[in-house]
């Protein structure tokens, strides 16, 4: 034993180790215990106990403080969700059939299994709308609406028929030009600048969209 040291025993594991005389006296004065390592100090101060996860598949042993021990204890939220989903199944089935491809998938709200199927269904729907109208009927509809508004109509004002117009003529502006009208575009053809027009109440508007809101 080295001079100036005292042999003491660990409070947790009873292992003997050397302690400096000054620290030994101070520890006795304060009424503290001796530990050979931080791990022994941590283990001795534990106030909880080791319990077993209630998930029958897991059965993992884990430590929990006494204040945190509940009627049902699980080692993780995943184990808790697994048990609760078995005990209390959802009212609505998780599995659905995609309305576009028919493949089964898990969802509560979506009608399609992927964005690809969603866009495909939208495209097919627009195709069905376009098939209902001939190019002559589309031109006649555009002209009648232009006469009613006193200007070239915008795409949103034509509703679903605008999809048929785009499929038939290639673009909305081409459909307007074939109908003998001028597209709602500025002289420099910049898309973010629109031609000025008047609303039905006589107000001057900077764009057709503004005129629609005014009306």
Sequence of strands across the biggest β-sheet:
1-2
The class by helix and strand makeup works out as alpha+beta
Fraction of residues in helices?
40-55%
Number of helices: 9
Major sheet description: 2 strands, antiparallel
Rounded average pLDDT:
81
Q: Write the H/E string, N to C.
A: EEHHEEHEEHHHHHEEH
What overall geometry do the principal axes of the alpha carbons give? Answer: elongated
Give the strand tally: 8
Binned strand content: 5-15%
> Multimeric state of these chains?
single chain
Radius of gyration: 39 Å
Which spans of ≥5 residues are poorly predicted at pLDDT below 50? 186-193
| Termini gap | 100 Å
Key attributes of the depicted protein:
two-stranded antiparallel sheet, alpha+beta, 215 residues
């Amino acid at each position: 034993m080295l001079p100036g040291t005292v042999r003491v025993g660990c409070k947790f594991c009873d292992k003997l180790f050397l302690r400096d005389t000054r620290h030994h006296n101070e520890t006795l004065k304060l009424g503290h215990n001796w530990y050979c390592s931080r791990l022994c100090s941590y283990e001795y101060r534990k106030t909880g106990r080791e319990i077993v996860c209630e998930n029958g598949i897991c059965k993992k042993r884990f430590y929990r403080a006494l204040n945190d021990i509940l009627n049902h204890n699980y080692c993780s939220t995943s184990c808790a969700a697994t048990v609760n989903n078995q005990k209390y199944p959802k009212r609505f089935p998780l599995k659905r059939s995609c309305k576009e491809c028919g493949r089964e998938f898990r969802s509560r709200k979506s009608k399609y299994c992927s964005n690809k199927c969603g866009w495909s269904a939208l495209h097919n729907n627009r195709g069905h709308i376009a098939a209902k109208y001939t190019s002559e009927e589309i031109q006649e509809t555009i002209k009648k609406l232009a006469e009613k508004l006193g200007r070239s109509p915008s795409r949103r004002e034509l509703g679903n028929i605008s999809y048929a117009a785009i499929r038939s003529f290639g673009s909305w502006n081409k459909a307007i030009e074939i109908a003998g009208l001028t597209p709602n575009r500025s002289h420099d053809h910049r898309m973010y600048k629109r031609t000025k027009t008047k609303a039905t109440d006589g107000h001057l508007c900077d764009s057709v969209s503004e005129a629609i809101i005014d009306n």
